[in-house]
Amino acid sequence: MTYCFLLQKMKRAKHIEKFLFVFPLLTILLSSCSKKNDSSDSDRFSYEVVCDFCDINYVDMSNTLQIVNNNVGSWKYYFDEKVTFDLKISVKTTRSDKQGIHVYILKNEDVVFGDFAFNQADLVFSTKQSKGTGSYGTYQNPGSGSGSNNGNGGSNGGSGTVSSVCGAKNKTGGYCKRVVVGGGWCWQHR
Length: 190
Hints:
Layout: H1 2-32, H2 35-39, E1 45-59, E2 65-78, E3 87-93, E4 100-107, E5 110-118, E6 120-126, E7 131-136, E8 163-165, E9 179-181
Antiparallel strand pairs: 1-2, 1-3, 1-4, 3-6, 4-5, 6-7, 8-9
């Protein structure tokens, strides 16, 4: 009886040894097939705009210009495939009064370029160099007396300093509302 018992125990031990050898191999193979590893090969870009009564001109996935007229609220556009061209977006309000615009280019759901602007914003982002250029409208005091409506300020006799809102996207999905003298980001979002 002890001989049969030992034989059965040895057979089970061999099966366990095989299982212990095969199990780590299976876990390595299965982990290499996960979708997370496949998606890390290419970055996912998108546009994000928050404005009321604005026209949005942007370059889509096929690298052609598209237009959204009179957008109200939040607007997003996702690129489903790898992007090899420059991303371009232009936003302009359709009303003449001062309006704030949030315009951003995101990479894997994180803001890589963009800012808060008044009445108009133009962004170009190179996906190859990860660099962007942009022009942003600034708030002009309507009581300046010059009657000029250009973004350069003209010669109004003012001090020339421009105040804007930081506008950086925060963790809750909203935007920073700190006032920044001279434009750009606040101390926390630099």
